[in-house]
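Suppose a colleague, Dr. K., hands you the sequence of a protein chain of 113 amino acids and asks what its three-dimensional shape might be. Before reaching for any lab equipment, you can write down a predicted structure in token form. Begin with the sequence itself:
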Amino acid sequence: MAQKITTEELKKKIDGKENLYLIDTLSANSFEGRHIPAAKSVPFGADFMEKFEKEVEAPKDAEIITYCASSSCQASVLAANALEKAGYTNVKHFEDGIAGWQNAGYQFEGEAA
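The predicted structure, expressed as tokens, is then:
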């Protein structure tokens, strides 16, 4: 099971321009509306791994962080588990997701940001 990362830890990594892959597992419409800066959209579904490997092209040892709407949303947990099952070794799950980012007062990117 993927390690969890806090809102503050994620913010530090983004601000420090750390080499990571931040994956928004919500729908493409949600991503267009607003997303955490530096995120890539890979909606979770039956074809998640196929899309991830085609669009993201992350090395197996890269730091990958998945997120979705909030701690009650399971898409990012399922995505993190799928990544680990596919052999990715440095997967983290940002449990608080969009809600946690917003509650911390951090900025979003996207049309509605």
